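REQUEST FORM: STRUCTURE PREDICTION
Request ID: SP-0412
Submitted by: Lab K.M.
Chain count: 1
Length (residues): 430
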Amino acid sequence: MLEGPDPAPAGCLAAVFRGPVSTAETLAVASCDGPQPVCGMRHSTRNPNSPVPGRGEFAISPPAARGPEKGAWCGREDCSRCHGSAQRHLTARRRKHTLIPVPFGPRGSPPTDGGRKEAANLPILEGVKTAPQNPTEPIGSGLVIIDKPQGWTSHDVVGRTRRLAGTRKVGHAGTLDPMATGVLVLGINKATRLLTYIVGANKTYTATIRLGESTITDDAEGEIVQSRIAAALTEEQIHAAVAKLTGPIEQVPSSVSAIKVNGERAYARVRAGEDVKLAARPVTIHRFEIHDIRRERAGKVLDIDVTVECSSGTYIRALARDLGEDLAVGGHLTALRRTEVGPYTLGRARTLEQLAENFEYLPLEDAADALFTRRDLTEHERAELSYGRRISSNETDEVTAAFAPDGTLVALLKNKGKEAKPELVFATAS
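STATUS: Completed
RESULT:
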């Protein structure tokens, strides 16, 4: 074990590599109230204000991390160089090695057994259980409908789900901003192939829009760049402006969106000081309904609670910005919760804490049945599709889910001419 120049303080849990760093077999991640961990590597003290456990909360910098100084952390909670490098290093380690917390004795010395017995009963991160490394019953394929917590990126949720499910094959069907909460659809194993069809589904949100203030990001996380008194606005004016933004519209995405401009994310260009202008794109607002209008700060700003049902690609914060500009007072988004993605609703969603206790997912067959028109096959048709061959046409020109007589999902079909062609085959011939 590598040992630093000074022992860790009593009760310390520190980041420790067993063996040479380049060939480490075990990496333990925990907190340290003292300035120096036993291994001699520099790392931050625990940050209880971080919204993302597992990233900011234990913001360590292994030797491979590239911060302002090699192996050091600059101390800023939002430093993407330090945190990003540390995360990439830890992710690479997790692919090959086991993560366990290593407890230390009263004088900061490691236990004689290397911490393995004590670590066996400790969670890697509080409140989260990991799937067994060699499960007797491997996880199946299906969709996980998650109620995303505020402060987490969609990638954070995918990473946590990979550990809970015990599989690397996890993807999401469209991101949610860290500020937003609600439905995030994840696919595991074979069900990741369904995500392409879910991305384009309609979505429903509940949101709060503040009129009277504009921010650089069009939401509450950005700096206020302009304030205009909204006291003179009437409810009739607000309803009329909402009506203009309902139906097919041309929407300019927020300049800090994830849209790529010449191969680089728009938000990265904005952070670098560039003035980014994105082209308008067609979207459809199927429903833009006002539930409540509240006057705050002696009427200087107005908060509006709304429900928005829209097509894929719609930016709700851009909708808030455009509503404010149409009313000549400016506006931004202060709260956002996604309640529906296609047929998958908040009622089916589970929190990460619930999934840690009982990992529930929608089986592949049930997920496809809810998403597509169903077609029940004969045994002959099932055999033909398992070899990728075409069969007789579907009753509809939309994508159809084809099921074997035993209920197994065989393929997704789409008409081409007078026949139905398999777009995806899930049950191939053995």
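NOTES: The radius of gyration is 26 Å.
Reviewed by: T.R.
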